[in-house]
Specification:
- Necessary for efficient RNA polymerase II transcription elongation past template-encoded arresting sites.
- This is Transcription elongation factor.
- The protein has 294 residues and is α+β, with helices and mostly antiparallel strands.
- It has three domains: 103 residues, Transcription Elongation Factor S-II, Chain A; 118 residues, no CATH class; 69 residues, N-terminal domain of TfIIb (Single Sheet), CATH 2.20.25.
- The chain is built from twelve helices and four strands, in the order ααααααααααααββββ.
- The longest helix is centred in the N-terminal third of the chain and has 25 residues.
């Protein structure tokens, strides 16, 4: 179940969906809060989840209003039970815990106890058929494999996050497009990097919400150590790129942005990692203006 920080992140994501007027995402976020939050007065007050859900009961969209009303009723009942237990009434008349919206297999919230390096959705016995599309379901499985790798989080928690990430990518890249598939593969590959364990932990904890995760650049997805190494490589190659003018080439197509003359000398160098484009260093021979581009 979510802690206060996770609830706050979910509330923020829900507010974003409300601002963008996206009913499907609003309903999805409400359903997640309904399933995952065991409310206390403290959590609802500090995260403002109760206030936001109360406002949504008056939403013009009947589905959203109904879903929010159900959540408020469930939370209210849970808070009342909490108060009753504090007053000692539970001993006289035990209060049952709120029923889950949908039954789940026993033990799905239990921490994983096998070999975390061999985790896959097939090995964990997870059914990833959730969307009716084989492409999307396979992508859910791929993200599950990335998040589960070297993790002891429960099967249910990993699956929930994988579904959220796939849904965010599907929406961000307009369906089952080439960009959508490439992003899913990129996320999976970064999650599988052993030295980048903090990335998966951030997604699982809710610190990196799905909507942010699918928009992170290749640089942002890297581990802190890899970013440091790339910065050192770029600095080193930048120095090597500053060759004497005699070794530079003249271009008839490049134009100086300052004096507009086509008297530009240039040289190129690989200033970043091998899969990044070359950097071109230019100098105008008329006004000595210098610039670079990739």
């Amino acid at each position: 179940m979510m802690d206060a920080r996770e609830v706050a992140n979910r509330v923020k994501a829900l507010q974003g969906s409300i601002t963008k007027s996206e009913p499907a995402d609003i309903l999805s976020q409400i359903e997640t809060l309904k399933k995952e939050v065991v409310p206390t007065e403290e959590i609802l007050r500090t995260t403002k989840a109760g206030i936001l859900m109360g406002k949504l009961r008056q939403n013009a969209n009947k589905d959203i209003a109904r879903a929010a009303t159900e959540v408020v009723a469930k939370w209210k009942k849970s808070i009342e039970q909490e108060k009753a237990m504090k007053k000692g009434k539970a001993s006289a008349s035990p209060v049952p815990k709120p029923a889950s919206p949908a039954p789940k297999p026993a033990g799905t919230k239990k921490k994983f106890e096998g070999d975390p390096e061999k985790r896959k959705f097939t090995a964990d016995g997870v059914d990833v058929k959730r969307t009716g599309s084989s492409v999307r379901d396979n992508c859910i499985g791929l993200i599950y494999n990335g998040l589960a790798y070297r993790s002891t989080e429960s099967v249910d928690s990993v699956l929930q996050r994988a579904i959220e990430v796939e849904h965010a990518a599907f929406k961000a890249f307009n369906g089952e497009t080439k960009e959508y598939k490439e992003k899913i593969r990129s996320l999976f590959q970064n999650l599988k990097v052993k030295s980048n364990a903090d990335l998966g932990k951030g997604v699982m904890s809710g610190e990196i919400i799905a909507e942010k995760f699918v928009h992170m650049s290749s640089q942002e997805l890297m581990s802190a150590e890899m970013r440091k190494q790339n910065a050192l490589l770029e600095a080193e190659n930048m120095k090597k790129a500053q060759v004497p003018m005699a070794e530079k080439s003249m271009s008839e197509s490049l134009e100086c942005g300052k004096c507009k003359k086509r008297m530009v000398a240039y040289t190129q160098a690989q200033t970043r990692s091998a899969d990044e484009p070359m950097t071109t260093f230019c100098e105008c021979m008329n006004c000595r203006h210098r610039w670079k581009f990739s």
